[in-house]
Amino acid sequence: MSLEFFNTMDRRVEPFEPISAGEVKMYTCGPTVYNYAHIGNFRAYMFEDILRRTLEYFGYKVRQVMNLTDVDDKTIRDSRAAGVPLREFTAKYKQAFFEDIRTLNIEPAEVYPAATDHIPQMIRLISVLMEKGYAYQAEDRSVYFSIDKFKDYGKLAKIDRENQRSGVRIRNDEYAKDSVADFALWKAWDENDGEVAWDSPWGRGRPGWHIECSAMSSEYLGDHFDIHTGGIDNMFPHHEDEIAQSEAASGRKWVNYWLHCAHLMVDGEKMSKSLGNFFTLRDLQARGWSGREIRWVLIGAHYRKKLNFTFEALAQARQTLNRFDELFGRMRGISTAGDGSEVDESVAHALEAFERAMADDLNVAEALAALFDLQRAANKMADSGQLSAAGAVRVLDTFRRFDRVIGCLEVDAEKKGDEIPAEIEQLAVRRAAARKVKDFRESDRLRDEITRLGYQIEDAPGGAYRLRKL
Ligand code: AMP
Ligand code: ZN
């Protein structure tokens, strides 16, 4: 099956063809480590994880590079406000980031280069841009990229060249499309930078944000690679500026496919630090939500559609995942004889639908429908006694296969029942006994007691039951 992705550069869905057969080189703009990442940021990393896992599912070997921005306007500002040296300040958030991606079961990239470890590469790249006449040092001693010199400037964000303000300069890392200008490659030291400075041919200073990604991608992926990703807000100016730097330096096309995800929203607005409407992963964990449940919510919508974050969605995720747990437990318990051919059709159908959906520009929402179809079919066969142990094994295998992309089905997770305290188990056993003799008053009383102690009991056919922590 061939994969198709929406390429932001051309604003259309295109067949994916890697530069080298069977291999994908991919660069993803990583976190600015000045705080804990919020789940809006994680929507972007989650989309990239689904992309990566899908490529792997279809047999590609992926080399992914994700940078850590550990020097920029924001990291310097906040480390100074905290009175902590930059390196120490960012180290804490780097570590938190790695903990968080583990919580969300995001597959690690092959390389996580930190900007401060690649200053010489950035200086080299700026030197090339100076030699080729694309960059200049201004009166403020900072070095800027001259967008007039690069004829393709604006091709990603579709900026009208006529309206470009010639010769105007901007020193900030972030700015809006209507203030397009020559942007800083190297920022001359000023007192706001405190201790943060490196020597360069243009005097002491520090790199701009955009040059970090051009220098580090070239270091680890070369100057022409397959995929570059990020959240849609990264498209301008960040990615536009990256293209200008990289293509001006190498004189060739830099990236073949640009993929961007839409925002995670809260009440109609982008979740962001500046609006203060954000939840970190840790906030949600503290409220009792698991990484698995949060992952399910974040992957559920198509990556190019806005996704509204709500707590109802998390509650829904919990229910949905519980039902999968039940299905997997049920499949393991089936012992009926048979060759398993009864699941041939459902399994083939579900796999085909799942793969078709993922190959079609990562249509996760449709892929999930295939999971639900197989769940329904398996439960139905089990209800009517038609499902054999061999068939159940194949159903489980199919879900394991889906989970290579989905990443939170936990088909083989230890049974939750293992963590139930003996006291609760005893109450449940007494309740089962009461039910057997149809003493429903006593069985209801015991159920309430179990609930009061924070556990839920669910009855299964034939007097069986399942306990779980509320
Ligand atoms: P930053 O640390 O601000 O550079 O952002 C890291 C990544 O998160 C970038 O790819 C952003 O585009 C992305 N991002 C930030 N806010 C959101 C949001 N609300 N929804 C989706 N992606 C976001
Ligand atoms: Zn970047």
Q: Mind explaining what this structure looks like?
A:
- It contains 14 helices and 16 strands.
- The chain is α/β, with parallel strands linked by helices.
- The chain has three domains: 4-261, Rossmann fold, CATH 3.40.50.620; 313-406, Up-down Bundle (Four Helix Bundle (Hemerythrin (Met), subunit A)), CATH 1.20.120.640; 422-469, no CATH class.
- Strands 5, 6, 7, 8 and 9 form a five-stranded mixed β-sheet that branches.
- The two termini are 42 Å apart.
- The mean pLDDT is 94.
- The structure holds adenosine monophosphate and zinc ion (ZN).
- Residues 29, 31-32, 40-41, 43-44, 230-231, 233-234, 261, 263-264, 270-272 line the site of adenosine monophosphate.
